[in-house]
Structures are given as structure tokens and as C-alpha cells.
């Protein structure tokens, strides 16, 4: 990844966070989020604002270990959740802090990370926050609409969606806590119909392995096809229209064990 890639992702953090705040301003704070039904809109903006403060702290302090419980509680402490204007101001402050921290971080930043194959820490945190803000922005839109947004309404740009699919398959699925294992090995192809992007995920008793740009003739048992945005939303459990072909039992296994 290049410096330009990282800068682009930091701008996504700013833009998607601003869009989330604008949707929250048009939503009752106690409105249930259809895509995360255990949360209200206020819970959602409080979560992301706290995560942004956590990342700001990790990046600026170049933390190699987790903050203590007291510091974590302070990061996630919000204003009165019934006060929408105060929540937005608090959230905007968090967004400004995390984008400034990422822009000012050195290229050789060293911090804790939480995903497999993370790459350089500055890029890792920019990427993670870009997709955190994008996915939760879809959640806030769902709260405003009272339903799952369509792919067009979610408006996830193709290149951002491709990057998010790559992060999901290559970094989230192989995490130690992943339950995507099978004594009967199988292969899953994830193919974007609007981009030259294709992944094959090898599922076995070992941690899953994702190979990008696998050969077209690589044998597969399960195939997921759709636009990059549809695949992105589907993998994150936020809707999306994806065509899945393959045995029903493998489809069920994949769906049950790819939720994060």
C-alpha cells in the first residue's frame, strides 16, 4: 500500500463519519438500529465516537498494550444520550481527533493491532477506521430509514468496497477467535462482477486462508457473486444482493461462521 492509499482511507474516515453524524441529526436518539437491533442510534454514535478516541490514544501514544479500564471508560464516556446536539459535538470532536492523529502519525508507526496480516500500523488503523465508519454509517442510515438500506442508498464506492472485502476475508476471517473451520475442507470463491477482483477462501480444520486473484480454474465448492458494494454489505451482514451457488449445507456453514 502507498502513502496515497493511506491518505485516501483517512479521508474516508472523515467523510463517512460526517455522513453518519448528519443521519443521526435526522434520527431520534432512541430509535432502534435495524442492522444492530440491540443498539439505539445514540448507542451507535457513542460506540463509534469511543472507538475513535481509543484509536487516537493508541496512535498518538504509540501504544504496544491496551489502555487500562479507567482510560477505556473515559474514552467511551458520552454526554447525555438524550441530548442529540451534544452527542454530535462530542462525536465530531472524536472524528477530528482520529483523523488528525492518523495524518500526523509516522510511516513507521508501531502499535498494537488486532487483525491477521495487518501490514504497517498507520495504514492498518486508517483502513480499519475507514471501514468502521462506513459500516456503522450504513447502520445509522438504517436507523434513519427504519429498515436495511438498499445498496444504492448505502452508496459504498467500488474501490472502497473492494478494499473492505479484502480486509474482511484476509484479516477478519483468519483471526484466532474465528469459528470458520470444517473437518470437511471446502473452497469459497468471492467474485466482484464490476471489478477485476476475485478471492478464494480455503476452509479447513486450520484457520481459513484467503487468496486474492486465484486462478479462474481453481476448483471451488461455493461461489458468491455480486457487485463489490453488494458483496461488502453482505459479508458485513448489512444487506446486499449476492448470488450464492453451491450445496445448501455449505451455504449454511459459511453464513453461520462468517459473522463478526
UniProtKB/TrEMBL annotation:
Domain Mycothiol-dependent maleylpyruvate isomerase metal-binding: 14-140
One Gene Ontology cellular component annotation held by this UniProt entry: plasma membrane
Residues covered by the MDMPI C-terminal domain: 159-249
InterPro entries: DinB/YfiT-like, Maleyloyr_isom, MDMPI_C-term_domain, MDMPI_metal-binding
GO molecular function, one term: metal ion binding
One Pfam family hit: MDMPI_C
Signal peptide region: none
NCBIfam families: maleylpyruvate isomerase family mycothiol-dependent enzyme
Protein name listed in UniProt: Mycothiol-dependent maleylpyruvate isomerase metal-binding domain-containing protein
Organism of origin: Nakamurella multipartita (strain ATCC 700099 / DSM 44233 / CIP 104796 / JCM 9543 / NBRC 105858 / Y-104) (Microsphaera multipartita)
Source species taxonomy: Bacteria, Bacillati, Actinomycetota, Actinomycetes, Nakamurellales
